[in-house]
Amino acid sequence: MDTIKLFTLIVTSTLLYAAPLIMTALGGTFSERSGIVNVGLEGIMCVGAFASVVFNLEMAESFGPATPWIGLVVGGVAGIIFALIHAIATINLRADHVISGTVLNLIAPALTVLLTRVLYDGKGQTDIIKESFGLFTFPFLSEIPVIGPIFFKETHIVSYLTIIVAILSWFLIYKTRFGLRLRSVGEHPQAADTLGISVTKLRYSGVLISGFLAGIGGAIVSQSISRNFSVSTIAGQGFMAMAAMIFGKWNPVGAMLSALFFGLAQSLALISTAVPGIKDIPSIYLQIAPYIITIVVLVVFMGKAEAPAAGGKNYIKSK
Q1: Whether this model's pTM surpasses 0.90
Q2: Neighbouring C-beta atoms of residue 10, cutoff 10 Å
Q3: Contact criterion met (CB below 8 Å) for 35 and 315
Q4: What pLDDT, on the 0 to 100 scale, is given for residue 202?
């Protein structure tokens, strides 16, 4: 395999596996910037993956190639509904954020597998979807020497969409009035409240945006990687996304770059036979490498990273 083909394989695989991590890490960033810690990203991804696959299987004949794109929205809406549980528990009922998120992670796999068995004659997984994203070649850009074949020829367009969303998220959080207010309730909700900013509304906004983006992340996994849904479809990606968010210091661009790194770690197990230097490493080690990296990142950087000051703290208006 020549150098260009090798880099093309690495870049394409990395982008594929990084796409759901980018969307979910962005979702976690919005939630935690508002002061609500969301460890339920894994569960939200699971619900989004299930909803998008069911929609894809049922509506593929009606919508054709547009089905997976509409499926992203369906997965996002399912994520919003599921994240609403976390919002009510933490904002209205003042529950512990970590416990509430953990409950989401426990409920989602059991609920979606139960629904899968009910909908698909007792089977533990759905059928393979008929419409998926497939590969896309960018006109003109793919003709650029060297760079074109590597980045823009027969690649995953949904991955580039997630990169655009990351850039837009950075602009929204750091360059708009909404972003300033969102960050203010995550840093000092009392001060924001005295200025007439609704802490409750902004925190709800942060959590529901996180649900929408994480639901889309799950939909990307099920419609471009696994192409069906089972209990193992979302296997730790939510926790990897959370690690990417922390490693990226709660910055959308930093989270995106971290997610690309985790995407590379995930893809190595699949492309290892074609990559010199790692093809002799047993595949089992490459398969567990992303999870080990996740643990290392959380242990090393969790204590050093500066999270939003009011993150995980329930706000009581009277105080």
Answers
A1: yes
A2: 17
A3: yes
A4: 96
